[in-house]
User: Which sequence fits this backbone?
């Protein structure tokens, strides 16, 4: 396992609102994500997981702190540069509504590339398509695909531009366990076979067991970390951290 | 339910504002037209009622004044006879003319183009019902030749003062006279609507306008108090000789008022047609807006249903919203209509119809019409979306978009195709040969065609949008592809938005084709049929002094001078028109093809009749026809039939003697001049121009100038029509803005997603712009195509009226399409900005 840092957050603070109603969604978070690793972020609802992902993926600006993507510091970039960064160097998978309904699966997959005016590397495209097992579905629109297929299309889109890092916010949250396993298997393979860096938010200890490393977040702070997790070790760690809401 | 309605209105005020604006414009047009027409009506009623006595004694068959007037008179001796009738307080013989123009100090005619120049002998008798007639506002009445009064408004406009010398143009001989202003006089009722009023002493008026001292045009009678007009009329009628009749002033006023109203009625019709177009386009905007609002609110409405609201309640809540829009729109529209009426008044003032002296007339009818139309149009336009809203099943609360089932789109297609077939049939029928009521057949065909295309547009839209997608993808890549797909997302909505623009574009294109055809036809007509070298005419066909042609005949180098005199006439049972020509020379100037008879035979009481009319009226050579220009009818004999030709728009021709015999005045409407072979054209033209120089209402034009003048008239009319149609286009553009804005809101989440995966703000703006452009292009392409077809039908149907040549100005039409695309870019401005400003995360989080 290489230990080159793909992305780093330093003393990240994200505050919402002001005065008494102020919420610190992230409260001095310092964390590193390593290249070629599959990292899970876990924590109770409202602990700041999505906020961290959004800041890391250049979708939101932190109130304080620095974010480095490779050598690039996000805070220094304007909206156009950030957009280009999202397009070229970051892949993102949301929990739902990942696809443009008017475009076919293939067009959705190629969207970041075609927005950039780049043509895909055909071999890589084929590899990705075969990995997610979507070849017969390429001409279909999202409405003609199952939830699991839609998430796989979203994953393929996140990977096809060979981004530095992929962020996935509860990608299996809306899926049944079989479809979820398909998606997770695919993410795992892309880390193993292609050396992709992936950071995924999840609630599910089973999903977390697909990853190399789990980071636990509570009340906007990094509380713990676990390497080579299994479903059982994750569950026991979660229970230790928050006995009341172990499964929330 | 009402509270929910109110809440949602407040929440959607921006979107509703735009559709309200459509209603505002439509209602403003209706209200403005009505206010203007009512004002016009009052102004003319005022004038007309001030210009008749209690009883008027006139030549038999007299009609309220035509521009050309008639030579028919009542004998002077009759005035004394009438005065003796018991119940008559006073009577005066009158000599009047509607064609005496006052020149300003620089020699330019005062009053607008085409407004009459009234002149009469001064008298002090009151008008019917004791209304003051001529009223002296300053100075004294004219008492001898060389003295006049003019009306104070005209005096003010030209800064004339009492004691100044003024030049006047008459249609008699000499054409230009001068006189000293001794006073200012106006009609008691006030405004002259842009006309001028000159009074002369009675003897001079008689000399100028009757031409002899034996007769008067009419006798103005004032009743003694307590004697009714009708009673007095019968008493007078009893003493009148043959050939003279008496009418009450009211009857005469009604008659001439009716004529003026008829003549001006076209203004109302014209304006109301444009009001209708605006409302139709506005209706589309409303249907679209409400459809989208309902679609957006499907969840909320489904929730209402789930909570136990009945279908009717949901329908009513949407309709209630629409009615508020209608109410607000009508109110604002009414106010704006008032301003519009002021605008129209200013516009018409430029054409010589000056209504500034008459306050705007605001009748209850106008208010009712404004609210009625505004509310009804809104209610109708909102009904379909409202019904669709009520049919939302509670489970639909989870769906994003409520698409019309495909079946309905196809049902519209079939209906549209049937309608299109019918429309084509009607248009072909109207354009192949004039049928009975062909104007109506044409109008119905055009409206049917428009609706047919609107119905089939959702189906037609698909291939058109796909076709636009090819260059889009090619040039703009992913952004183009997204724009293409967005426009295809809901073809029915895209088509409805485009339809609004299409209506305006259709009408503009149709008028463009028709206007170009009219100009080409004029050129062809002049080239083919008109061999004269010069045309002498006055603005708007007012007759002018025959002395001008007399002088022209003496110019060296002039070979022929041929006069044409023209007047509305009663011919047999028809109200038609008669032209007097010079048979010897007319054929040299205008191509005329005789089916029967010979030109030289046209003299005295003889007529040439157009072949069509001859067939209709069963007239042949030898038929006898009574003809009158406003006096006792004379019997004419048909001695020839000529072929219908766009060069000769008159259907009855006679000689100049025949024209005089029918009561026509010796005043020329057109004079054609042919120069001798070897003559120097420049020298001839210079001499001709010198002759008309003192009469600035009359111009000499060579063939090109004559053609250019006709072009100018067509262009002026087209400009007015384009300006009015421009409103419909503006409403349609608002519709595009509205649709785009709403669809941006609908797609907030998707836009967030696109931004998240790397679409830049610029690209996003471009995407929205491209969507707008493709919608505009769809509207423009459909509109121009339909407009050309309708323009063609219009030209064909009017070829008997002289529009013989079809001209399709493709470059100009192509320019419209380009302009439409630019309009699309403009329409996308705000929605695109709004889309680009969306916060990525918040957009994604939107439900
Ligand atoms: N836009 C926002 N405005 C205000 N508070 C927010 C906003 N987004 C998130 N929060 C708050 O920040 C905290 C962390 O939220 P989030 O990162 O979404 O949690 P998680 O994804 O771990 O469930 C929560 O308390 C949430 O209420
Ligand atoms: Mg979350």
Assistant:
């Amino acid at each position: 396992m290489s230990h080159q840092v793909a992305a780093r957050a330093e003393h990240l603070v994200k505050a919402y609102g002001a005065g008494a109603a102020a919420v610190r969604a992230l409260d001095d978070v310092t964390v590193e994500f390593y290249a070629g690793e599959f990292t899970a972020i876990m924590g109770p609802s409202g602990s700041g997981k999505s906020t961290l992902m959004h800041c890391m993926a250049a979708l939101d600006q932190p109130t304080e702190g620095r974010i480095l993507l490779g050598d690039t510091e996000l805070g220094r970039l304007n909206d156009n540069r950030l957009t280009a960064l999202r397009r070229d160097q970051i892949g993102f998978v949301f929990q739902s509504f990942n696809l443009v309904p008017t475009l076919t699966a293939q067009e959705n997959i190629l969207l970041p590339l075609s927005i950039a005016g780049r043509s895909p590397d055909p071999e890589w495209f084929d590899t990705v398509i075969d990995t997610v097992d979507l070849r017969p579905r390429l001409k279909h629109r999202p409405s003609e695909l199952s939830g699991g297929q839609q998430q796989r299309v979203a994953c393929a889109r996140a990977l096809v531009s060979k981004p530095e890092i992929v962020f996935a916010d509860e990608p299996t949250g809306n899926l049944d366990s079989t479809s979820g396993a398909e998606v997770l298997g695919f993410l795992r393979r892309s880390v193993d076979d292609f050396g992709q860096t992936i950071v995924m938010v999840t609630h599910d200890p089973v999903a977390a067991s697909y990853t190399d490393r789990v980071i636990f977040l509570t009340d906007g702070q990094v509380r713990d970390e676990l390497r080579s997790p299994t479903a059982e070790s994750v569950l026991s760690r979660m229970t230790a951290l928050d006995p009341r809401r172990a499964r929330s | 339910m009402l509270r929910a309605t109110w809440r949602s209105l407040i929440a959607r005020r921006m979107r509703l504002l735009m559709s309200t604006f459509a209603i505002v414009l439509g209602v403003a047009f209706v209200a403005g037209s009505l206010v203007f027409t009512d004002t016009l009506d009052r102004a003319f009623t005022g004038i007309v009622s001030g210009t008749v006595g209690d009883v008027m004694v006139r030549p038999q068959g007299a009609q309220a004044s035509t521009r050309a007037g008639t030579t028919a008179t009542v004998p002077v001796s009759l005035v004394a006879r009438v005065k003796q009738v018991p119940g008559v307080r006073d009577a005066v013989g009158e000599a009047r003319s509607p064609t005496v123009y006052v020149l300003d100090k620089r020699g330019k005619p005062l009053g607008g183009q085409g407004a009459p120049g009234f002149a009469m002998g001064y008298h002090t008798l009151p008008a019917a019902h004791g209304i003051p007639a001529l009223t002296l506002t300053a100075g004294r009445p004219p008492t001898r030749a060389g003295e006049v009064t003019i009306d104070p408004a005209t005096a003010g406009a030209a800064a004339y003062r009492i004691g100044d010398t003024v030049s006047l143009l008459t249609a008699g001989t000499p054409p230009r006279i001068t006189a000293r202003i001794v006073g200012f006089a106006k009609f008691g009722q006030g405004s002259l609507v842009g006309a001028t009023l000159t009074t002369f002493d009675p003897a001079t008026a008689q000399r100028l306008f009757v031409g002899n001292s034996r007769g008067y045009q009419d006798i103005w009678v004032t009743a003694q108090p307590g004697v009714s007009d009708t009673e007095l009329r019968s008493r007078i009628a009893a003493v009148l000789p043959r050939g003279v009749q008496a009418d009450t002033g009211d009857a005469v006023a009604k008659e001439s008022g009716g004529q003026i109203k008829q003549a001006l009625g076209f203004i109302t019709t014209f304006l109301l047609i444009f009001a209708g177009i605006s409302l139709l386009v506005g209706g589309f905007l409303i249907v679209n807006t409400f459809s989208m609002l309902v679609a957006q609110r499907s969840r909320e409405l489904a929730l209402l249903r789930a909570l136990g609201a009945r279908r009717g309640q949901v329908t009513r809540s949407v309709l209630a919203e629409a009615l508020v829009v209608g109410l607000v729109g009508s109110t604002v529209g009414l106010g704006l209509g008032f301003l519009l009426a002021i605008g129209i008044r200013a516009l018409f003032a430029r054409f010589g119809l000056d209504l500034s002296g008459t306050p705007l007339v605001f009748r209850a009818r106008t208010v009712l019409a404004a609210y009625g139309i505004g509310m009804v149009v809104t209610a109708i336009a909102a009904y379909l979306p409202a019904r669709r809203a009520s049919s939302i099943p509670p489970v639909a609360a989870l769906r994003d978009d409520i698409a019309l089932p495909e079946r309905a789109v196809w049902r519209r297609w079939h209906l549209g195709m049937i309608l299109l077939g019918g429309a084509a049939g009607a248009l072909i029928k109207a354009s192949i040969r004039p049928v009975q009521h062909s104007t109506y057949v044409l109008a119905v065909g055009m409206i049917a065609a428009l609706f047919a295309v609107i119905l089939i547009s959702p189906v037609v839209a698909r291939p058109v949008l796909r076709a636009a997608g090819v260059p889009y993808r090619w040039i703009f890549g992913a952004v183009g592809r997204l724009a293409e797909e967005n426009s295809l997302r809901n073809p029915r909505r895209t088509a409805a938005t485009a339809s609004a623009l299409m209506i305006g574009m259709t009408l503009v294109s149709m008028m463009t084709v028709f206007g170009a055809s009219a100009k080409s036809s004029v050129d062809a007509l002049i080239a083919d049929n008109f061999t004269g070298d010069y045309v002498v005419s006055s603005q708007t066909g007012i007759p002018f002094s025959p002395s001008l042609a007399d002088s022209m005949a003496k110019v060296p180098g002039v070979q022929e001078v041929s006069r044409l005199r023209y007047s509305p006439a009663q011919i047999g049972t028809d109200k038609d028109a008669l032209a007097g020509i010079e048979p010897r020379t007319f054929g040299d100037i205008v191509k005329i093809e005789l089916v029967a008879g010979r030109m030289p035979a046209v003299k005295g009481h003889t007529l040439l009749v157009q072949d069509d009319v001859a067939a209709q009226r069963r007239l042949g050579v030898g038929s006898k026809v009574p003809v009158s220009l406003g006096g006792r009818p004379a019997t004419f004999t048909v001695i020839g039939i000529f072929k219908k030709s766009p060069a000769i728009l008159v259907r009855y021709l006679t000689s100049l003697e025949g024209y005089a015999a029918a009561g026509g005045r010796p005043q020329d409407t057109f004079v054609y001049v042919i120069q001798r072979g070897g003559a120097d054209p420049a020298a001839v033209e210079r001499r001709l121009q010198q002759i008309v120089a003192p009469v600035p209402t009359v111009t000499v034009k060579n063939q090109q100038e004559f053609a250019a003048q006709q072009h100018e008239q067509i262009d002026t009319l087209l400009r007015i029509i384009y300006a009015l149609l421009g409103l419909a286009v503006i409403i349609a553009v608002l519709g595009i803005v509205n649709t785009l804005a709403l669809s941006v809101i609908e797609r907030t989440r998707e836009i967030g997603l696109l931004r998240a995966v790397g679409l830049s703000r610029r690209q996003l703006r471009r995407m929205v712009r491209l969507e707008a452009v493709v919608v505009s292009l769809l509207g423009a392409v459909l509109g121009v195509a339909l407009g050309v077809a309708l323009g063609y039908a219009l030209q064909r149907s009017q070829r008997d009226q002289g529009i013989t040549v079809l001209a399709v100005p493709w470059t100009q039409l192509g320019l419209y399409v380009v302009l439409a695309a630019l309009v699309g870019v403009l329409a996308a401005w705000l929605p695109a900005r709004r889309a680009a400003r969306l916060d990525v995360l918040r957009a994604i989080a939107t439900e």
